[in-house]
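Predict the 3D structure for this chain.
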Amino acid sequence: MKLNEIRNNPGAHKRKLKVGRGSSSGLGKTSGRGVKGAKARTGNQVHGFEGGQMPLHMRMPKRGFRNIFANDFSEVNIGRLQKAIDDKRLDASAKITEEVLRKSGLAHKSRDGVRLLGKGEISAKLDIEVAGVSAGAREAVEKAGGTVTTTFKKKVYTNKKGEPGKRQQRRAKSAETRAARKGGQA
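Done. Predicted structure below.
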């Protein structure tokens, strides 16, 4: 075999049909695209159009909304903590923080930190520092002789002047009046 004898396998390279080269080819003039309209134009596709039938995205029921102010926690159960300690992935004597949990692969990246939940059993005495903790998880850790501290502080959204928004101000004011009312009754 020489360089000038190298060929593709027969049928491996099929030449593209040239359209718009006369009516006798069967694909002349409008090149098999019909007459006018969005589908006759180049680089244009009618996405989601189903020929006048109600499109799927419009047929499906819509529910709820995406709360942009919701807290985004990475959740870790105490049962998984205990398993990681048993597998020697976590050191029970050291303080367990969010960074330690992420490095050991127990928690994924999240905007507001890690929240400890109470599913499973825990027997190790741990010193844990996380953003949030459920009541059941706190109880289980303290029962095992450990401590839990939370670091999460809810974000206060401010206006352009740097003051809390109207809703926040209204809530603070009503909280003050409630406290004053309670103070007057006692």
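The longest strand covers residues 74-77.
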